[in-house]
């Protein structure tokens, strides 16, 4: 017998058309504050463009903090999702599903690490990596029970859970959320000597972002990542690279660590892995590391669901072509050249790699937030970070002309 569910009528007030201003007001009362959104209400999107409720178009130069590396609604990703919606969407890992193994195999081949632990959000991947590193420390390295430490970098951003904010040095992220999880040490970023000095017999892992995104696209000196690799190998410490924002084509290579030809012991991916459609994250590592997890010791109801695996496999297929990495490299020069011409004209400095840039705005012309708001009025979406910095991370499908038009708008609002 087949059960056919009745289709309920949608609640009237939730479907009645409302203006952007009405929806912003409703968000302000119906939703808890966590982000501080710019005043634009997106109703539709395609490629590098979004459209608001009133039909105004904006060039998306943020791309969901790099979750939309392939643009909004990439046809191949939408097609993969639609196909999977007609088959099966969720099994939980109480059972196997026919999509997950293929996803893990293709992802392993793409990045060169043999096992995958599928999760959903970036924060979950980070949490999972910390658990795996601790277990590895006790079972493989021989660290005394409950003594394992993980070294992280000042200025880090790895997510918002209680353990992750425990090792943040951003008071806005931490304030009021204690007590905090012990077992972390913070060292200055891009400082190998400080890292070496912090490593001792309790150190399970070093967890860093190869480029610090939220801190303002901070790119470490040449040789730093190679140095971290050599140091961690020499001291029997796991190197965990959080590439949740820097990975999957953004910087012109599949992974940002590839700029220094480095392979970490554990790699964290998220954001773009879900193609901007579903949350998909993953921890990748060798069997000697991820093999410490045994049945029942970790889990996630949605982690590795067939819809996520189908979209993730389609994302990997896009990256296998090399097209998006090449675009990020080539168009990165357009972005870099344009930003160089703004230095001294309202921009005090910038850092860029591939299609990713942190731009420091002269406080005399406005805060990062004010510049972002002025850009909304110019039809360009970016986001500020840490007071006077704005972040540019357009979809890798953006064109050179679109980047130039965004930079022209930036020049106008700085002028
Ligand atoms: C480097 C890095 N790690 C982890 C996260 C957390 O990801 P999520 O918001 O999906 O939990 C982010 C989010 O911005 C990030 O940039």
UniProtKB/TrEMBL annotation:
Belongs to the class-III pyridoxal-phosphate-dependent aminotransferase family. This is ornithine aminotransferase. Pathway: Amino-acid biosynthesis; L-proline biosynthesis; L-glutamate 5-semialdehyde from L-ornithine: step 1/1. Keywords: Amino-acid biosynthesis, Aminotransferase, Proline biosynthesis, Pyridoxal phosphate, Transferase. Its cofactor is pyridoxal 5'-phosphate. InterPro entries: Aminotrans_3, Aminotrans_3_PPA_site, Class-III_PLP-dep_AT, Orn_aminotrans, PyrdxlP-dep_Trfase, PyrdxlP-dep_Trfase_major, PyrdxlP-dep_Trfase_small. Pfam families: Aminotran_3. The keyword Transferase applies. Coiled coil: none annotated. It is an enzyme of class 2 (transferase). The keyword Amino-acid biosynthesis applies. One of its GO terms (molecular function) is ornithine aminotransferase activity. SUPFAM superfamilies: PLP-dependent transferases (SSF53383). Its EC number is 2.6.1.13. GO terms for biological process: L-proline biosynthetic process.
């Amino acid at each position: 017998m087949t059960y056919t569910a009745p289709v309920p009528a949608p609640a009237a007030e939730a479907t009645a058309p409302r203006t952007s201003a009405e929806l912003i007001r409703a968000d302000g009362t119906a939703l808890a504050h966590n982000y501080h959104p710019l005043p634009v209400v997106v109703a539709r999107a395609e490629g590098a463009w979004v459209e608001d409720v009133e039909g105004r178009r904006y060039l998306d130069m943020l791309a969901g903090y790099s979750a939309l590396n392939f643009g909004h609604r990439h046809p191949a990703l939408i097609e993969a999702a639609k196909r999977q919606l007609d088959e099966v969407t969720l099994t939980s890992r109480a059972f196997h599903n026919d999509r997950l193994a293929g996803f893990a195999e293709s992802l392993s081949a793409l990045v060169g690490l043999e096992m995958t632990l599928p999760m959903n959000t970036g924060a979950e991947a980070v949490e999972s990596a910390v658990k795996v590193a601790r277990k590895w420390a006790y079972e493989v390295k021989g660290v005394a029970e409950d003594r394992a430490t993980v070294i992280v970098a000042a200025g880090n951003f790895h997510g918002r859970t209680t353990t992750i904010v425990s090792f943040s040095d951003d008071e806005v992220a931490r304030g009021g959320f204690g007590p905090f999880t012990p077992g972390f040490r913070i060292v200055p970023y891009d400082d190998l000597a400080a890292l070496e000095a912090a490593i001792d017999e309790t150190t399970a892992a070093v967890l860093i972002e190869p480029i610090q995104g939220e801190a303002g696209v901070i790119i470490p000196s040449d040789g730093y990542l190679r140095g971290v690799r050599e140091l961690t190998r020499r001291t029997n410490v796991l190197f965990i690279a959080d590439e949740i924002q820097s990975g999957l084509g953004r910087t012109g290579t599949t992974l940002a660590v590839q700029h220094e030809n480095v392979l970490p012991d554990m790699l964290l991916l998220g954001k773009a892995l879900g193609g901007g459609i579903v949350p998909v994250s993953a921890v990748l590592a060798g069997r000697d590391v991820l093999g410490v997890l045994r049945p029942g010791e970790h889990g996630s109801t949605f982690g590795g669901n067939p819809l996520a695996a189908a979209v993730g496999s389609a994302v990997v297929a896009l990256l296998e072509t090399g097209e998006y990495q090449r675009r990020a490299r080539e168009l990165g020069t357009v972005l870099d050249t344009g930003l160089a011409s703004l230095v001294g004209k309202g921009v005090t400095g910038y850092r860029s790699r591939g299609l990713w840039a942190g731009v420091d705005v002269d406080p005399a012309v406005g805060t990062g937030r004010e510049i972002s708001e002025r850009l909304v009025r110019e039809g360009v979406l970016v986001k500020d970070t840490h007071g006077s910095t704005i972040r540019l991370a357009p979809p890798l499908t953006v064109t050179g002309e679109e980047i130039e038009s965004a930079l022209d708008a930036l020049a106008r609002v700085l002028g």
